[in-house]
Amino acid sequence: DHHVVDALAGLAQFDSTRGSFIAFSTAPGAVAMDGSGRNSPFAAALLRHIAEPGQSINDMMIAVRRDVVSQTRETQRPWEQGSLLERFEFVSDGQPAEPQRPPAAPAPSTEVAALERSVGDDKGSIEKFLRQDYLTPDTRAMNEAVKRLYGPSATIFGTRYDADAIVKVKADWFAQWASWSLSMEAGSLEVTPQGEDRAEAVFAMRYDYLPKDKSAARLTGKARVTLGLVKVDGGWRIESETSQALQ
């Protein structure tokens, strides 16, 4: 039998018995966030991913962990331990795996040069998009903000979300804070062409979040943000988003 346990915040690690898998909402000894909605960040992420067909329990926890780390700005990191002897899926897709496709051939140097010129010309518009939209979203109108930023869907920390799910994740995150500020460090923006009308933007972002809960700690620091961008109707939209804390 396989056993899955959602451990409460602050619990120490358990000794895993044979064939078991134990999921913790946060790292051993740490305290999990309750969140501002009906479910905690961990419970909400678990509900999103547990019924995905063909996904192993290990892959599910990676997706859950990415969601929680993203929503809590790396203040909470789910943990698991186990001794499974075989692959386990909550829902089997019953379909054979698709054959891997060979990697695409690199673009000729002339094409790369043309792409670099094209995206280089657009660096100013990308920086404007980041400063005016990404770093200063209108949290009072999150639906419209997400439409301007992400379009119909995006991959955030390795998980694909549609626009409604992005609105929920972003709204839950910003609802925790009495005030906040995000800013791009001067001179940190790097833009790399990724194909026609696509680019990768990497920059250092400073953040400062003041919680509504006066007993909670203020969250400040700097992160390296990586965004996959696509040009739509003359403007930029985010296709993928990740970030990594910087010292």
Describe the protein's architecture and organization.
This protein folds into two domains: 79 residues, Alpha-Beta Plaits (2-Layer Sandwich); 137 residues, Nuclear Transport Factor 2, Chain: A. Helices cover 28% and strands 30% of the residues. The chain is built from six helices and ten strands, in the order ββααβαααββαβββββ. Strands 4, 5, 6, 7, 8, 9 and 10 form a seven-stranded mixed sheet that branches. The protein has a three-stranded mixed sheet with strand order 1-2-3, with no helix packed on it. Helix 1 packs antiparallel against helix 2 and helix 5 crosses helix 6. It is globular and about 60 Å long. The termini are far apart. 23% of the residues are buried. The N terminus is likely disordered.
